[in-house]
Hints:
Elements: H1 13-35, H2 38-45, H3 49-55, H4 59-70, H5 83-99, H6 101-115, H7 123-143, H8 153-168, H9 175-191
Amino acid sequence: MTPDHRSRPRRRGSALEDAIIEAAIVELREVGYAAMTMDAVARRAGAGKESLYRRWPTKLHLARAAAYRLVGEPRLPAEPSTLRDDLLAVFGTMITQMRGPAGEAMRGVVSESLRDGDAGVFDGQGGVSQRLLRDVVARAVARGEQVDPVPPAVRLQATVALLQHRFLHRAHLDDAALVEIVDEVALPLLRAASPLHEASPARSVTPARADR
Length: 212
């Protein structure tokens, strides 16, 4: 029998929020997104349901918060490293996360979000991914590697979007797939020079003569 949450020490603020998110993570791991309920999370967290609904109005919002909590930032290899090694580390960590509870949460969240017309489901993680990849690019520039120092956002998004597409369609993502994605997609995109940063040829301009 689950103890009455009212008999437990009263928690507030971040301590209560952490307990709820941790309970949601356990539920996602044990029963999956489809079977997870707000009632079960509240019982596991030892919290009242009103505490959940004040912070996350639906299971969708709570599962998204749990997924983002699970998705930690990859650790980049110690220097000396290479652009390729850094990319393998970043995208390898993403694939590992997709195979665990974070992936289970995101698959359910995406499915429900698309039904509700919410196209911004990956916005939170997308921001983290772009910042990480800009850090990777900055490291490569500092090492003197051939890389576009300021790649357009679309190039930073492309490889992440490819991984997400394969993940959502349950494509097999193993070490061989990781190497192929890095070598054939991520590296070429980041090494290509942006037209905006290429030197433009100097053009002589002849002032127009005023008619007399």
